[in-house]
Amino acid sequence: MNHSVVTEFIILGLAKTPELRRLLFLIFLLVYLVAFLGNMLIVVAIACNTTLHTPMYVLLLALAIVDIICTTSIMPKMLGTMLASGKTISYGGCMSQLFFFTWSLGAEMVLFTAMAYDRYVAICFPLRYSTIMSHCTCVALLGTVMAIAVTNSWVHTGLILRLTFCGPNTIDHFFCEIPPLLALSCSPVRVNEVMVYVADITLAVGDFALTCISYGFIVAAILRIRTVRGRRKAFSTCSSHLTVVCLYYSPVIYTYIRPASSYSFDRDKVVAALYTLVTPTLNPVVYSFRNKEMQAGIRKVFASLKHNGLER
Known about the structure:
It is built from ten helices and three strands; from the N terminus they run βααβαααβααααα. The protein is mostly helical.
């Protein structure tokens, strides 16, 4: 049973002065719209174009859906906290936000690894790609992503639900994340910290290592390309992907590998913004909008919308 006496939390957000809150509201509203619409455009383009129904683009579709869930679980309430009347979140709402955020966090990390493996097979074994990355393999990868993400989310949310929150109920953050919630708990959080540490080592560090290993093999294969233009193009793609991966994993590992007692609210709110807001906004640009096949799929979507509008 939940023994908490706290029925709601107060979220302080990123800024304390009204002027700065209004400015940040406009900035993050724009960020949310770019992230949401960009990822939604990827979902529609891939779903509506049969030429994009390949493992690479199915994984991109899954990543776009995860980014939509991640930003939508955080941003609307975050924007509400920047307004005068929207600083509180119910206990149930906070736990729901925590569940969907930890789900998307785990899913995104495993998806990065699956995407790196897909590119490894495509570049290192091009003649066997269709055999290795078959429909069954793609389904198995997505099933693994879902299973790991749900397990990770249930474990952490369940452990938080066991804690007692007897006050204060002020979260010095812009959403309900594990470290600030542990800092507010009146009961021991040692088990929570151990499980967070284990998850960070296995998911964040483990997936990051596997992703780097995959790209190591990819770089080795690229170096064997004879033409300078081909090597430059391949390295450009890999460097962009690795930049996003590093930008995502570094703050996640930094945030979750430490005990709650060492959590710095002012500094770590900015760090958390990198993997909750910046990366979902960059993913459509890095992984999709620079891809010619995705550009063609997006043009087909707009052409279809224009055609339907003219018919009406």
